[in-house]
Amino acid sequence: MRRFLRVFKNTSVRIFGFLLFVIFIASIFVFKDFYKSLWHKSLSFYYVYLGDNYYKKHRPQEAINSYIRALNLYPNHYRAQYNLGNLYVAYEDYYSALDSYSKALQLRPDFTVARIDYAIVLAEATFNYDKAIQEYDLAIEKIPKWVYIPFIVDKKHSYKHNKGVAYYNQGIAWRGKSLANGENLILSRKCLESAVESYEKALKSLKTYDVYYNLAIAHHLLRNAEYAGYYYCKAIEKEPMKYEAHYNLAILLRGMKKYGASIEEFKKAGLILDISGDGNKTRYIYDVLNEVNQKYSVSEEYINLVQRLDEEKEKQASAPQKGITYVKGKMLVTDEFDGAMVKNFKTCANKQYFEDGIRY
Fold first, then answer.
1. pTM of the predicted structure, to 2 decimals
2. Of 91, 164, 258, 266, which has fewest CB within 10 angstroms of its CB?
3. How many angstroms separate the Cα of 319 from the Cα of each of 10, 81, 312, 339?
């Protein structure tokens, strides 16, 4: 009896195993399309992995080939489409980049970074400002709302950051549209006002040099002198060793006939460029500075200028120059002098005047 049960048990196991094998073989034929797509999808992810590695190693053509292979196997891989778009931008193949970004967005409409990059290329490469502005609105609308679970999930920062980036780039698109419609003064001004609105919204989450600087330029073009000066000063506080804000502030002050303050900012811009070794721009700035000095010399402030120069000469004569060395005609700056200069450059000419103008 026991022998019979053992034989029956072994036979049952064999039969059951055989049936499972038959079912598996049958499923391959019945669900072959499913298995094929699953294999293609897995292989596609492998090619995306290869493409990412090539991308990191700065081997763009191999990365492009890998992403294309991945998409041939699995066209719905939105990340591969996006990365492919980035590589096309690097090759300045902007229309192919737009096509890849567009396909990525069709697959995932809330892909915020892809939509922002798509809009940037639309505005800056193809000058399609209206479409770009619409895409920025969509990006802001479709940014996934932030989730905050203490010590587990905090997407609030990325949500606010992406929103700020979208508004900032939208401001740039509005300014581009303003310049493109320069002959239509009314439309151009409305576009600049829209740029100001976008930059101000960006400032709620992005208090960076670029936002302050571009907001200042927009106000400068709108001839809002106090606001332009205020935001140039805010940009200078963020990045005191970038000459552009100093230079544009000097231009603004020159237009306001505040020649003394204008000269201070021109000097700062010129010194920054001199240190960096950019001779052409330095010569241009000093040419403009000479022009402002001439206007200054016939103004009421000239006496103050002469007195200040005399005081500076006395100080230079009584104290040796520290922190500056010249090698083959190029200025080299020590850390001690550099720190003092940065602190000095953060001090914006006429800052209080601009703040008072905005306050009242």
1. 0.75
2. 91
3. 104, 63, 11, 19
